[in-house]
Amino acid sequence: MKEQILNEIAEKVMVKLAKHEVDLALVDELKKVNDDILNNLKNADNSWRAYQDYLTRADAPFKKMIQMRESLLNATGKIEQLLKNAETQAKNLGLNVNDIPLYSVIKSNLNKKNEIIKTIDSFEDPSTFQ
């Protein structure tokens, strides 16, 4: 009988020990998963901060690009009117407008200007992403 009682006690102790091992395994797994979550949180936080810093650094060149766009428009506004006058005068005189010195070079430059303006206009202000 004594032996039976000792066996029952030993069995209860073993069950409790086994339960604690399960509890400890669960705690270990929770800690591992939490460490992984913390690592991902840190990386995600760092990544958006790095992107925000990148966009902040992009503000200055973007503003410069917009200023250059305006300067380009201002610089070419007068020449476009002069070219129209030259085209009209050449037509009235019965001349080929391409015989006017620099006409084709200026027209080519204006085409490049239009391409550059179109490209600049395709960019979005990086400050809108912050």
Description:
By secondary structure, the chain is mostly helical. It has one domain. 85% of the residues lie in helices and 0% in strands. The longest helix is centred in the middle third of the chain and has 92 residues, at 2-93. The radius of gyration is 38 Å and the shape is rod-shaped.
Secondary structure topology:
Layout: H1 2-93, H2 103-121
Stretches with pLDDT under 50, minimum 5 residues: none
From the alpha carbons, calculate the radius of gyration and give it in angstroms. 38 Å
State the helix count.
2
- The residue-averaged pLDDT reads 83
Our measurement of the CA-to-CA distance between the termini, rounded to an integer number of angstroms, reads: 78 Å
Q: Quick one: overall form?
A: rod-shaped
Number of domains: 1
The profile of the biggest β sheet is: none
Percent of residues in helices: over 70%
The fraction of residues assigned to DSSP E strands is under 5%
The number of strands is 0
Q: What is the H-and-E element order? A: HH
Q: Helices and strands: which structural class?
A: mainly alpha
What's a quick, concise take on this entry?
With 130 residues, this protein is mainly alpha-helical. Helix content is 85%, strand content 0%.
Features:
single chain, 130 residues, mainly alpha, rod-shaped
